[in-house]
Amino acid sequence: MSTATDDRYNTLEKSMKKLGYDKSALIETLHTAQETFGYLGIDTLKFIAQRLRLPYSKVYGVATFYNYFRLKPKGKHNVVVCMGTACYIKGSNKILEKIEQRYGIKVGETTPDNVLSLLSARCFGSCSLAPVVVYDNVPKGKVTVEDSLCEIEEMIK
Amino acid sequence: MITSLNELKELADKKKCASGNSRQELRVCMGSSCISLGSAELGKSLQDELQNRDLEDKYKIKNVGCNGLCANGTLVSHCRGDGSTLYEKITTSDTKDLVESIQNGGLLKDKMCDITQPFFTKQTKIVLENTGIIDPDDIEDYIAHGGYEALFKALDGMMPKDVIEEVKTSALRGRGGGGYPAGIKWESVSKVVSEQKYIICNGDEGDPGAFMDRAVMESDPHRVLEGMAIAGYACGANKGYIYVRAEYPLAVEKLGRAIKQATKLGILGENIAHSNFSFNIEIRLGAGAFVCGEATALIASVEGNRGNPRQKPPHLTDYGLWGKPTVLNNVETLANIAPIIKNGGAWYRDIGTENSSGTKVFALTGHIKNTGLVEVPMGTTLRELIYEIGGGIPDGKKFKAIQSGGPSGGCIPKELLDLHVDYESLKNAGSIMGSGGLIVIDDSSNMVEIARFFMDFCRSESCGKCTPCRVGTTELTLLLDKFIKKEATKSDFELLKEMCEFVKSTSLCGLGQTAPNPVLSTIKYFESEYLEGINDD
Ligand SMILES: Cc1cc2nc3c(=O)[nH]c(=O)nc-3n(C[C@H](O)[C@H](O)[C@H](O)COP(=O)(O)O)c2cc1C
Ligand code: SF4
Ligand code: FES
Ligand code: FES
Predict the structure, then answer these.
(1) What is the pTM (predicted TM-score) of this model?
(2) Do A126 and B211 touch (CB under 8 A)?
(3) How far is CA A92 from each of CA A86, A132, B450, B482, rounded to the nearest angstrom?
(4) What are phi and psi of B336, to 5 degrees?
């Protein structure tokens, strides 16, 4: 799709304009882009580079430096397992392993039918409820391996 | 617009009066932790129930921040004129019973939270004095609880140097981990001559397993803004940034609203209280990089770059954001400022220990009964924290170690349970204060695996700029794997220790310099678990 006909580029353009095409607001712009597109594709990054008059290598470098930015699209549903210390101590690595086994994907991957993406995070700040798993942006605490497998089945049904 | 201390006090009285006369409150916790337990739906269902019973003019639902005892969420407190009752583990299925018992003037006995337990009685709340009490979305509620009095007091009758003197007297040390005296940092910046200076609040909270700063930003955001504005006045800065990690959307939302409200009342903005002092605050989002909590990396990130640290000096106090003198302080450090200015530095100095004044907020997690947020005077013992406040180890397991300081810290064994927690004692024990995450580990855990967990964390978070850290953390992770698989040799053990020392002494920034700490401290106290991994035939 060309950038002129895609409404999402308008949204992005507006946000850059609001920030006065400020080069130092690159990270804010990338956040907006990821919210709008769901991920940061090569075309999107090139568009940002051009509009902010930054070298593409710089934009690409920043986008790849930060864990929060995704360069690949997510599946229809996503599950994020917290791998922070409090959750790890409470066995979140076992939850992650079981999900990996069941769906045949590793952390950061999406099932071939594009239905489920598996991600991990570094702490949501809800450590009291460890282990924490987030299903399609809804966090759940004190999760067991069985819970999480059921919950995912429910979600992708 | 509020233009003087008197006007501020008038508003506070008006608000207090209004809430005194009006409805009783049902305070529902809307901290991140309770929200994961469904507190938003709970709030709504309580509201519906009140409406059904035609009770809306008698009771009011108030959304508040974290109460501390997150393990027993959702917490709801019922506040009447004559006192309050705290209820725990409330879900939508309790809505009816709760409202009914309140309506009948009774108590829902089996859901009452015992507030005479040590978890509550052993705490001293300064930073957390408002959390769980005020509505973070309502600036007037903050003002009714004495908010912004310190800022107006400073603007009204104190010179910038008086403010700095007060903070120096308090001996407040940086709560972000390093423990550098805040007053001395401020003084350095105040003395530099420059047209532009900045105040930055570090809300990156990268230590995975810590959530003190999150709770403060979500539950009492104005306190952070007030601390920043006072710092700005003291140091001659007119612009502040709060760097918040993107994983804390609720904190970003609350801070954003707080900034808008404060600006509208003229508490932030140009010529505050008709003085020459102007101060504006912007939020900057992190994007999930632990290293960006490090001072110079954070600056790089705020400027829109990759978060690579740089060599110091020059220090931020001379050459910070866009090359200008900058004060960087942690959220909790800044949250202590308003009470210090209000009550005086000497008051604060009297709390805590000789070398570490005041209180510290800790996030208690791991194998412990009362997981949650607590604030205690410096010098409280680990035993009090774990067995009294924390309620001990659940499931009949035994205490093995407590981890403090996250990936830069270390593990403290049971022999040292009577240690009085402060900056020096933790350092002497081979750990660090860090930002305040305390993770309790029971005897079912293997310490080498825990050391590996942190090393792997540092490996993946290393920014890659310098070789000792980039390659060293990778090699150390692989070496630790050998111990876990019981395939290590005696010489691997020697190599492990040597490499730890090497990475510590040759890395550029704090991340690499402290990455070996979890390994070294577990070798110090749990050497036998390493020796079990050696298979030398
Ligand atoms: C790798 C690394 C990560 C850090 N992360 C944080 C953090 O998340 N929050 C924080 O306040 N300080 C963090 N610090 C400490 C800061 O560099 C800095 O010392 C602190 O924010 C200064 O504020 P204070 O004096 O009020 O503590 C980190 C340091 C290092 C080396
Ligand atoms: S020590 Fe590690 S994180 Fe710090 S600059 Fe070097 S590579 Fe980057
Ligand atoms: S460690 Fe998982 S939420 Fe903090
Ligand atoms: S979030 Fe509700 S008690 Fe902590």
Answers:
(1) 0.96
(2) yes
(3) 9, 8, 13, 22
(4) -85, -15
Q: Could you give the angle at the alpha carbon of B135 between the alpha carbons of B140 and B77, nearest 5°?
A: 130
Q: Measure CB to CB from residue A125 to each of B248, B288, B290 and give the nearest one.
A: B248
| Beta bridge mates, B282 | B241
Which of B32, B74, B373, B465 best probes binding to A when mutated, by most A CB atoms within 10 angstroms? B32
Q: What angle do CA B93, B95, B96 make, to 5 degrees?
A: 100
Nearby residues of B295 by Cβ (< 8 Å), 6 or more positions away: B202, B309, B312, B316, B328
B271 alpha carbon – ligand 4 mean position (Å): 37
3-state secondary structure of B502: helix
* Chain-chain contact of A62 with B439 (C-beta, under 8 angstroms): no
CA gap B152, B170 in Å, rounded: 19
Two structure tokens written together for A101:
């086994």
CA B54, B59, B63, B66 dihedral sign is negative
Contacts of A87 in chain B (CB under 8 A): 209
* CA distances from residue B79 to B28, B58, B94, B218, B456 in whole angstroms, order as listed: 11, 12, 18, 21, 47
Q: How far apart are CA B203 and CA B298, in angstroms?
A: 10
- DSSP secondary structure letter of residue B389: I
Q: How remote is the CA of residue A141 from the centroid of ligand 3, in Å?
A: 10
Q: Residue B44: exposed, middle, or buried by beta-carbon count in 10 A (0-12, 13-18, 19+)?
A: middle
Long-range residue pairs from B80-87, CB within 8 A, at least 24 positions apart, any chain: B80/B24, B81/B20, B81/B24, B85/B112, B86/B112, B86/B113, B86/B115, B87/B111, B87/B112, B87/B113
pLDDT tens-digit series, residues B323-333: 999 999 999 99
Residues of chain B positioned with their CB less than 8 A from the CB of A83:
208
3-state secondary structure of B113: coil
Q: Identify the pLDDT of residue B39.
A: 95
For residues B463 and B306, the answer to whether their CB atoms sit within 8 Å is: yes
B431 touches chain A (CB under 8 A): no
pLDDT 10s digits, A63-94? 999 999 999 998 999 999 999 999 999 999 99
What does the pLDDT read at residue A3? 64
Q: Which of A54, A82, A92, A123 to mutate to probe the B interface, most B CBs <10 Å?
A: A123
> Between the CA of residue B258 and those of A71, A153, B221, B226, what are the distances in Å?
33, 40, 6, 11
For chain A, the distance separating the N- and C-terminal CA atoms, rounded to the nearest angstrom, is 31
Residue of B nearest to A29 (CA): B304
Residue B514, both tokens: 């402290």
**From the CA of B36, how many Å to the nearest CA of chain A?**
5
